[in-house]
Amino acid sequence: MKKSVEYLREAKEALGCESDYQLAKALKTSTVNISNYMNGISKMDDYHCIKVAQVLGIDPMEIIAAAQEEREKSEEKKEFWRDFRKARGNILGAAIALALGLTTALSPSHTEAKSIGPLYYVKYAMSNQTQTAMILTCPIKSY
């Protein structure tokens, strides 16, 4: 499983930042914070996890859970966050599989066009002066 700093590096690349200073400006934080995150001195807070997730277009909980797991001191709590991340990954995988299955099942290649009878275009014209109405019809060819 990815560490929070890996997501941060991906965001740096996605934003095209060449320096930690540029990344800090993009994430609205200090260069010291970015340096501390990159060097493992501190872990990203939830705000920065969410900002990175927005840059990467992913679920913020993925990064928040990674940072929280890294922050924990007790092995029991670390295990909790690992299990949480695995469970979310499994749910996401199932959702993607379901979406792909539905997309395939509903694709036009699996459907047949139904033949319908003649269609008519109806134009309703009304003259304001004489209050008379006329209906014109003409068949529309079906292809």
Automatic annotation (TrEMBL):
The keyword Chloroplast does not apply. It comes from Chromobacterium amazonense. CDD domains: HTH_XRE (cd00093). Keywords: Membrane, Transmembrane, Transmembrane helix. The chain crosses the membrane at residues 87-106. This is HTH cro/C1-type domain-containing protein. GO terms for molecular function: DNA binding. Gene3D superfamilies: lambda repressor-like DNA-binding domains. It comes from the Bacteria. InterPro entries: Cro/C1-type_HTH, Lambda_DNA-bd_dom_sf.
